[in-house]
Amino acid sequence: MKKLLLILMMGIFGLGCSQQTPKVLKTSFSKEALNQKLEDEEGKSITIQQILDQHKGKVLVIDFWAGWCRDCLKALPKAEELEKNNPNVDFVFLSLERSKEKFDQSLERFTMNEKENYWFASGWKNEFNDYIDLNWIPRYMVIDQKSAIAKYYAISPEDPEIQATIDKLLK
């Protein structure tokens, strides 16, 4: 009976934290999502729209991660390899740390200081993350030169569709 109860509880709790590909793979952002604010390393506020504007004309890979996320940390070497193999692509790292202090610590600990980093001071639940159906990290998105979503959902930097999308956009 205890085993059955344990299995049942694992199934119930597992439903809330499993990765599932969203039913709709979006190709653009809503106005509300674009207005979502993040903070940079200095604590300065910036919107998703401003980040996209800074990279307009370039292919952009967005990497969602956190220092507390085991899967993110396991993926970091492959994410760095993806970045190294694509010197004509911009990379932005969006952190889901739980505090500015943890954000700063993770940047230092995982030598992310040389990269373009922002964090969601508002937490996981916000207009942008809700709009893109963020249900798991790490998560990767590829944005085209006109700020449209070219690859909506990938949970590994080794997903072959990421590189295929980048290659197609750079032709």
Automatic annotation (TrEMBL):
<dbReference type="InterPro" id="IPR050553">
    <property type="entry name" value="Thioredoxin_ResA/DsbE_sf"/>
</dbReference>
<dbReference type="Pfam" id="PF13905">
    <property type="entry name" value="Thioredoxin_8"/>
</dbReference>
<feature type="domain" description="Thioredoxin">
    <location>
        <begin position="27"/>
        <end position="171"/>
    </location>
</feature>
<dbReference type="GO" id="GO:0016853">
    <property type="term" value="F:isomerase activity"/>
</dbReference>
<dbReference type="InterPro" id="IPR013766">
    <property type="entry name" value="Thioredoxin_domain"/>
</dbReference>
<dbReference type="InterPro" id="IPR012336">
    <property type="entry name" value="Thioredoxin-like_fold"/>
</dbReference>
<keyword id="KW-0413">Isomerase</keyword>
<dbReference type="InterPro" id="IPR036249">
    <property type="entry name" value="Thioredoxin-like_sf"/>
</dbReference>
<protein>
    <submittedName>
        <fullName>Thiol-disulfide isomerase/thioredoxin</fullName>
    </submittedName>
</protein>
